[in-house]
Amino acid sequence: MTATLHMEGVTKAFPGVKALDCVSITVQAGEVMGLVGVNGAGKSTLMNVLGGIYMPEEGHVEINGRRVELRRPSDADEAGIAFIHQELLYFPTLTVAENMFISRLPAGRLPFTVDKRAAQNRAGEALGQLGSAIRPSAPMETLSVGEKQVVEIARAVAQGADIVIFDEPSSSLSIKEKDALFAIVRKLKAEGKAIIYISHFLDEIEELCDSYAVLRNGRLVGSGSVATVTRSQIVELIVGQAMSGPAARKRKIGGAPRLTLSGIRRDGILHGIDLEFKRGEVLGLWGLLGSGRTELIRSILGLDPMHGGSMTFNDDGGSRPIGHRELLERTAYVTENRRTDGLFLDEAVWKNISATTLDQYAAGRMRVLDKAAEERTAISMIERLTIRTPSHRARAANLSGGNQQKVVFAKWLNRKPEILILDEPTRGVDVGAKREIGELVESLADSGSSVLLVTSEIEEMVALADRVAVIRDGVIASEAKGESITEADLMAAAMGTEAADA
User: Fold this and answer.
1) What is the per-residue pLDDT for 109?
2) Contact 47/196 with Cβ under 8 angstroms?
């Protein structure tokens, strides 16, 4: 069975904001539609209407020309609508089969028992349809991120879903896992599924989608065939204005070395890394997933073991050895997962911003925190970084992804770091926020900070880095500067191949 989805004139308002304003979209059976827009544009709200989480004030949903009432998530499930969420939800200690059928496990012969063999057989059939060799009996916690995602998709297949929504599905995947995901999406399309693919990666929209729809400020501002629109036109629709390309940026030549790494080793992962961080420079660390990028950062900061090598710091007193603890104190580290280890989500924005500099606000013999001073500093940082928040007292969890990331920047910039390490700084944020973060990175380097940029987005690396060290199999394979920082050359170096002739 196949299905065509139509959402007509959907309007949804929350106190003080109209999240959706008369939005209409159509996804045909056997079509992949790319849904794009900045964080807060209305994508999640629209999908929550489709998922039965929100009821719209106006508008309706049709499947195969018939109106359906989606008052609760179970209604969406019964209507054949399935979601593949960016943040995967699963029970880590249960098996693949148990996770796939957790709400309707087949009953065993005895009361209150489960027929595990039947569950595993059904799971194996669904996984087989996707061409996956994942064992239904494997505990979920033993799977990679990509494999867990395949299990989520198999669950949708097993439930007979004809409408499948993918929400930022590739943001945590390796290149190999992303290729596998694309193959599965194309297989579902060939089977006649109607697919909505939400992504900030416009190259994915171009490669995978047949049509596109752009939301901005709760309105549908553009839609049509992907084949008839350029990437720059989509970007202009997303942000509401034309954007200059990265080629206009002039690369800088770094100043004196600030940190020198020599022969850094970590058994089985890093095999003698030599690297120099220069003042006033954005140094890119480029490599494929598993190359050792994040492991290098964590090892030099003492967060993971370092089994060999040395580190030298250069300041006004000259060159001297530096240990993990002192380097950590001199470094701001924006981690790749802001929600897990970057923010206190349940705390106010101002508390997050002051969290790394509490000593500055401790006054008197009793070292009592000066709350007013904390708040003044936080408000100043909110204004400096144009963090969009209802108030400095709002919970960090209530901000959009891009504004959460800017809060992470704010808390570290408050320390005035000499070295700034950015690990996937724009993951999961919209085009507008990416531009703002990019401008912030450049301004920090201009002010003399040594910036290390790690990103999986090659366009971002080309646009922001002044110099790029390519890491492959735990060693620095090559270094690129100036005009040699191109997508083709970086990918060729990362993969160990020569770039094709221009």
Assistant:
1) 82
2) yes
227 and 263 in one domain?
no
Taken in order 218, 220, 222, 225, the sign of the CA dihedral is positive
Q: Nearest to residue 200, comparing CAs of 54, 337, 334, 41?
A: 41
For residue 295, being part of any structural domain is answered with yes
Q: What is the DSSP string of 389-444?
A: -S-TTSBGGGS-HHHHHHHHHHHHHTT--SEEEEESTTTT--HHHHHHHHHHHHHH
Residues 265 and 366 in one domain: yes
Q: How many domains does the chain have?
A: 2
Within 13 Å of residue 118, how many CA atoms lie on the same side as its CB? Answer: 10
- The helix/strand/coil state of 289 is coil
Q: Nearest 5°: CA angle at 255, between 252 and 258? A: 125
Q: How far out from the chain centre does Cα 251 lie?
A: 26
Task: List, in order, residues 6 or more apart from 89 with CB less than 8 Å away.
Answer: none
Q: Which of 273, 216, 246 is nearest to 434 (CA)?
A: 246
- Cα 305 from chain centre: 26
Last residue of a domain, one of 242, 268, 294: 242
Is residue 229 domain-shared with residue 282, that is, in the same domain? no
| Contact indicator for 469, 452 with CB cutoff of 8 Å | no
Residue 364: the pLDDT is 63
pTM exceeds 0.70 for this model: no
At position 37, the amino acid (one-letter code) is G
pLDDT score for 26 = 97
Question: How many angstroms separate the CA atoms of 462 and 482, rounded?
Answer: 10
Which pLDDT belongs to residue 433?
74
For residues 316 and 203, state if they share a domain.
no
Q: Match 């790494």 to its residue by tokens.
A: 261
Does one domain contain both 224 and 113?
yes
Contact 343/352 with Cβ under 8 angstroms? yes
Residues 166 and 264 occupy one common structural domain:
no
Residue position matching structure tokens 């250069």: 314
DSSP SS3 for 237 = helix
Q: Please identify which residue in the block is written with the tokens 């190999």.
A: 176
Is the separation of the CB atoms in 278 and 469 below 8 Å? no
Judgement on whether residues 84 and 203 belong to the same structural domain of the protein: yes
Q: What range does the domain containing 479 cover?
A: 257-485
74 and 22 inside one domain: yes
Instruction: Measure the CA–CA gap between 387 and 410, rounded to whole angstroms.
Output: 9
Rg, Å, the chain Cα set: 25
Task: Confirm whether 469 is domain-assigned.
Answer: yes
What gap in Å lies between CA 238 and CA 215, rounded to an integer?
7
Q: Could you say which residues of the chain have pLDDT below 50?
A: 243-248, 498-502
Residue listed under structure tokens 């027929």: 115
